[in-house]
Amino acid sequence: MSKVQGGMKCVKYLLFVFNFIFWLSGSLVVAVGLWLRFDPDTISLLNGDDAPDTYFIAVYILIVAGGVMMLVGFFGCCGAVRESQCLLGLFFACLMIIFGAEVAAGVFGFLNKDTIINEVEGFYLSSLQDNLTNGTNVATLYHTVLQCCGGTEPNPTLCPDTETKNCVEAIDEYFNEKLFIIGYVGIGIAGVMIIGMIFSMVLCCAIRNNREVI
User: Fold this and answer.
1) Residues 135-150: tens digit of each pLDDT
2) Is 166 helix (H, G, I), strand (E, B) or coil?
3) How far is Cα 175 from Cα 156, in angstroms, rounded to an integer?
4) 34 alpha carbon, distance to own chain's centre
5) What is the pLDDT of residues 111-135, one digit of tens each?
6) DSSP category for residue 165
7) Concatenated DSSP letters for 45-77?
8) DSSP H helical ranges for the chain
9) If we measure between CA atoms, which residue out of 58, 65, 38 comes closest to residue 106?
10) Distance CA 168, CA 86 (A)
């Protein structure tokens, strides 16, 4: 098997280092996704048969993309070390797929931010009007977790402490922070993958040209 030489050899090792970092990044994305999914506060706020689940869609996309990133990072390392056109081509194709998934998660988080927040706010407000036990428990959970009370309209009976912020504002702040994390992580990783695609194509072309010369 022909070996790349000179500057291309540098690209080879840069691609290997990049893929190792890429694998670590995938681990980080999975960890962030699992934290967003299994955060006790978030679970308690979105627990229930009528609770909106749109928020979790973006989280699931993030977790799946992170898992695939770890797998692809491994194949990328093998392809760089073995100088395999097949593995490097597979690596590039997988990067394209993950790139789309990460951008989708980021864009989904940003574009649907208001929709998700409105759904959660509506879920909370409906629980205030619900006289059933489950409704009362849901409202109490929101009050405890977000340290808030009531909706936009003052309710002295429900919220005697007028200095406590209302839950509509608290929900907006809480989920804005979570969704921005999803958006920034998704788009940030997508940017890093562009570098990987460039490295893999440069090395793949160098291997092919080297074989043609030989």
Assistant:
1) 457 777 888 888 888 7
2) coil
3) 26
4) 9
5) 778 888 888 888 888 877 764 444 4
6) P
7) HT-STTS--HHHHHHHHHHHHHHHHHHHHHHHH
8) 7-38, 40-45, 54-82, 85-111, 113-129, 133-146, 167-213
9) 58
10) 53
